[in-house]
Amino acid sequence: MDPVFGQLLAEYPRFLTALEPAEHSRTVTVDELAEPAVIERAVVAAREIFGVTDARHAGQLWWFSAVNSLVAPAVTMMVEYDRVPDLDVTTGRLFLRDPADRCDDPGAGYWVGFTPGEFAGGSGAAHHAAGEGFARSVRPVVAELSRVAGIRPAPLWAVAADGLAQAAVEAGNGAFDPYLGVRVALRLVSGLAVAVPEGAAVPAPRFLDIAGGAVTPTDMDAVAAEEEPDEVHTVVKRASCCMIYRSPTSGKCLSCPRQDPADRERKLIAALDS
After folding, report:
1. Cβ distance 206 to 237 under 8 Å?
2. Domain ranges of the chain
3. Which residues of 53-90 are buried (b: 16+ CB within 10 A; e: fewer)?
4. Rounded Cα distance, 74 and 83, in Å
5. How confident is the model at residue 245 (pLDDT cuts 50, 70, 90)?
6. Distance CA 63, CA 74 (A)
7. What residues does the Ferric siderophore reductase C-terminal domain cover (predicted)?
8. Is 199 left (phi over 0), alpha (psi -120 to 50) or beta?
9. pLDDT at 8 over 90
10. pTM for the full predicted model
């Protein structure tokens, strides 16, 4: 593993299980991850973990988790350290943290991870290429999940776009440079958009700023001018839903697009003030 991961994990230990296989993890190829039995097991695992009954909701919930595990560590590195891991998951180590062949364990087959194997220097072109590489490499997984769970491809690609954008913006907030996170997010999603299958348009990412107890649209002119705003916390105005609210043990998440906008803004302000 590249030494930069040690630095990343020292600051963000939560990424450990997404980056480093455990003793029982199993390395897989993208084609193996996209096998019907593996996808079917992932959907079953979502039902076991979260009590979600509809295959469509369970499948989308698994994909939301998978995208976060696959991209969040690498995207954080792009923002924090100006190094760009290749998000083409065929170029690194892709693994099932609790493999499908351990299916006697509740939830086995749900968690995935990815250790990038190739890097580029930070640049707008490199960010765009990373988003494009991610889309191209996971197309077989999205196609099979769509078939197995009965989900249209468009919502799954929207989950991928939001996952990239959210990881970048969260890293920007952590680095006290939220608009850097926005710029990286825009480049990643623009790359993703050019590589999705025909007919699966990716929604353009939208952002909100929280400052002084108010929520306003992000100043995109200031983003383009590479300004560094003071005391601003930026969030993604998500177009996709993770479906966790379909679980009997969970409510709607903080940034859920299915909330009343006023309620969502009030919760975002309260969470930042807490």
Report:
1. yes
2. 4-204
3. eebbbbbbbbbbbbbbbbbbbbbbbbbbeebbbbbbbe
4. 9
5. confident
6. 17
7. 238-258
8. left
9. yes
10. 0.94
